[in-house]
């Protein structure tokens, strides 16, 4: 692997692409989650506006990883990441984790909880990880973390949340 590609993978958490069974399964689940996202996006003006540049780059059953760069539309009046954006990401990412279970519908929110841990600023690269810890017959429970890397490369939590959704099979 060329040095530049290694550096980019380390800096931006790019998954390693291989030809083993795990990679094939992940790519199938990734494709499925991306299709759900492409179907939802045009029907949700807030997602289309705030998450226009989000990239879902990894999915396996129960776990989805995505990334987005903080742009001006994501900022509050103080110039840092708006709390409503973080809540929107937790809502969206929780739905994508549910979709990774093979569901076409990502459900309706019954509750959402967000903890804001540190600020992010314009140009920060955010890493989003969502996990569906339980997908039952009518309810799904998800957790989401939003992180950034500081100047030294350390991973810093920006926000974390839990999200419960009503789903129908």
UniProtKB/TrEMBL annotation:
Superkingdom per UniProt: Eukaryota
Keywords: Hydrolase
CDD domains linked to this entry: PaaI_thioesterase (cd03443)
InterPro entries in alphabetical order: ACOT13 (IPR039298), HotDog_dom_sf (IPR029069), PAAI_dom (IPR003736), Thioestr_dom (IPR006683)
Gene Ontology MF annotations: fatty acyl-CoA hydrolase activity
UniProt domain Thioesterase: residue ranges: 79-151
Coiled coil ranges: none
Protein family (similarity comment): Belongs to the thioesterase PaaI family.
Protein name, as recorded: Thioesterase family protein
The species this protein was found in: Rasamsonia emersonii (strain ATCC 16479 / CBS 393.64 / IMI 116815)
